[in-house]
Every structure is written in C-alpha cells, then in structure tokens.
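Continuing from the previous page of notes. For each protein in this section, the sequence appears first, followed by its structure tokens. Read the first protein now.
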Amino acid sequence: MGMKNLITSQLEVTGIPLLRKGKVRDVYDLGDKLLIVSTDRLSAFDWVLETPIPDKGKILTEASLLWFDLTKTIIPNHLITADLGEIKKRLPSGVQASWKDLEGRTMLVKKAKRVDAECIARGYLAGSGFKEYKKSRSVCGEPLPEGLLEASPLPHPLFTPSTKADEGHDQNISFEELKSFVGVETALKLKGATLKLYEFASDYSRSHGLILADTKFEFGFVGSELYLIDEMLTPDSSRFWDAQLYRTGSSPASFDKQFVRDYLEQTGWDKNSAPPVLPQEIIEQTRIRYLQFLKMLKN
C-alpha cells in the first residue's frame, strides 16, 4: 500500500522544478543543489492526513539544524544555509513563493547521490524490535540475551539497516545483504557513521533529559565523500523518550506522532479509505509534544 491522499502544500515555490513531494518535505531541483521545504504535513499508516500540525515543519527544521551543527565534525552534512535571505540570493531569477511562510522551514543543501538504504541505530528494545524479540530473542536477526523487557537498554547499540522505499514500508535487511546491495566499503562506512552519530546523540540527549531509543539516518555521496543528508534526529525519524518518565516493562510515551496513531487506532478507521479528520484537541496536543521536544533539546 503506497502513500495516498497527499494534501496540497500551501508552501509552493514556482520557477524551479519540483523534484519530489514527500510525506513531509517538498524538494526542488537547482542542478547541483536542492531546496528543501519542510511542511506541516503529518503521515500515519501510509496516508498523509488532511489535518496539518501547525509549526511542525519549523520545529523539524530547527532540530535538524541544531544536530547538523553539533555533528559536522563526525561526518559532513549537506546543509549550505537555512538563512532565507541568503537562500533567495542564490536562487535563479523568476523564482516566486510566499517567502514569509517559508521562513524557518527551508534549507538550501548540496545535491548528493543518495544511498538507497535507511541506516537505523537502536539502543533500546522498542517497537518492531520488541515484537521480534518476544518471538525469537533477536532484533533484525541479531541474537539478544534472555530476560529483556520492553524499553530495556540493549547490551550495545545495534545497526539495523533497511531498504529505502519511496512508497510503502521499508524492509529490514542484514548487514551482509547491505554489503551486497551497496558494496562492502560503503556498507562499513554507513555502519561506522550511524553508530558514531547515535552514540554522540544519545549522550547529548541524555544531558537534556531525553532518551534516544532509536533513530534512522540517510546518507549520500557528494563526489567520493559520504555525507549525512535529509533531516536528522527529529521526532519524525527518531524515538525519543522523556528520561524522567522512562520505565522498563512498558512503552514510554514518545515525542513523535504515536499520539496520532493511537487516536486513529481508536476510531475504527479501516486504513483503506480516507482517514478521519483529526479533532482540534489531538492537533494541539501533538503540536505541544513536538514543541516540548525542541524546548528540552535546546535547554
């Protein structure tokens, strides 16, 4: 089942080709550069919901910019600038947009040759990993000791790659499969960078009252050098928990859209027809969760 019902963005840029309209981001092609606009769209169960979450795109962009700056000594990233005045100077003449609406949600980045693999790091037993552990005492085929509970820290962080699917669900693959998929040298670089970034981000998050349970990164090549691309370490790509509320043995509340998924599960929606419109209360509480995450990260 692919992504459906992609709502029209109110943040369109005209005069440059639209390369891709993703679940959240609109990506425009500038030849050797890309313009990325983070919208307030929210997806759940392969649908983009009709109801946006106000300021979500700005929150995701601000968090990504913070992490890009913190991790640039670990691995280079694709960011050129997020300063809208600077971006406008670099765009060809004839480009038009509602610039005030793009403020705080737009990045000019280097165009990279994307590696078609999701690079996932897991430090805790959660989500699909916990489901697999209950069945086979493993996560993505990696054997784990007996007696772990939901949300338990893993003995060491795991690198669990998956295929990158533009539509539908990504599929977990083994490290050996990744090697055959992208080549041994690239696979080793991806694993090394992913685990280094996770280790740094986990320590940093802990010092700000957050637990980084798992996250996914995307990488691409600029020339022969591996770069971090897309977004990073936001509630859309990561499972963050409040350290003060963290307990093992149950699923801690996260700062992501799980709140919306839980609501949709309770509505009786069949997931095949258009999703129900979110009530104002759910929209506002979701927005508050995103804002709370950003506030903790910056404090």
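Done with the first. The second protein uses the same format. Note its length before scrolling.
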Amino acid sequence: MFTLDYLMIFKNTPPELATFLVAMLPIAELRGAIPVGLVGFDLPIWVVYIIAVTGNLIPAFFLLLYLHPVAKWLRSRSNFFDRFFSWLFKRTRHRFSARAEKYGVFISLVTFVAIPLPITGAWTGSVAAYLFGIPFKRSMAAITIGVLIAGLIVTVTTVGLSAIF
C-alpha cells in the first residue's frame, strides 16, 4: 500500500520530518504526506496539515525561482535533458492551456493545484506557471491557495476514510 511504502522508507525518521519530506516529493506531495502523517504516524490533524502544506510549498518556491535558468542550462548541455524538458513542457501546456483560456490563468492555476489528482499539484503547477509566464508573486499566491485547498480535501478524505476502516 502507498502509505506503508513511505512508512518503511522513513521508519527511522521522526514522524513530523517524514511527513514533511513526503510532502516535498514530486507526485506524492501532500496527497501522500497527509495519509502518512494521519494514518501511518497517528499525528494530530492540524500538525499534519501544517507540515504537509509547508513541505509542499517549499519546492514550489524554489521551482518558481530557478526552473528557467536550470532548465535552460541543462537543455543546452544535454540531449537527454533537452528531450525531457520538451516532453514535460509539452505535456504541461496540453493539460493546462484549455483551462487557462476558459477561466483565466490565476483561477486555472489555483484549481489545477487544488484538485488532488495524480500529476496535479505544486510541482506541476510551478512548471505551468513558468510556461505561461505568470509572475512569481502571482504564481506563488495561486499555488499557495491551491495547496491549502488540496490539503483540506485530502485531510477530510483521509479522516473520513480512516474512520470507516
């Protein structure tokens, strides 16, 4: 099970730190961290929420600041990274552009990050913000709002599911 795998990886790590680190991981983000903290480590809800949101926002901050120079540098020096970033940017543009045209870039970025599905979240939202040229402050605000909403959705879902089982 997803949660048990993370528990095994972080078995010698303090629960709060493990929850924080899982929230920083791409793909897992807070969708993985909140169940790990609540179900796996039995931490209080408010502690898990704060730790997971904070852990999820830290990579977004650095991605928004450094994605452009790092991607540019890597693409110029490696065919592998050039192909990887071409694939990543094409995929992100495809997933985000229709929503951006329909609802506006800010609202689209908030909802893109807020919906806790695979390949949506702060990491991909940061890539989308970069690709669509959204300024840092607006991007960070939209991603923060999205992460706060996603955290609430995942927390409520996790607490509801754990109460059933």
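What the second structure shows: The chain has one domain: 2-164. The helical segments are 2-9, 15-24, 29-40, 45-77, 79-103, 105-114, 122-131, 136-164. We return to this in next week's lecture.
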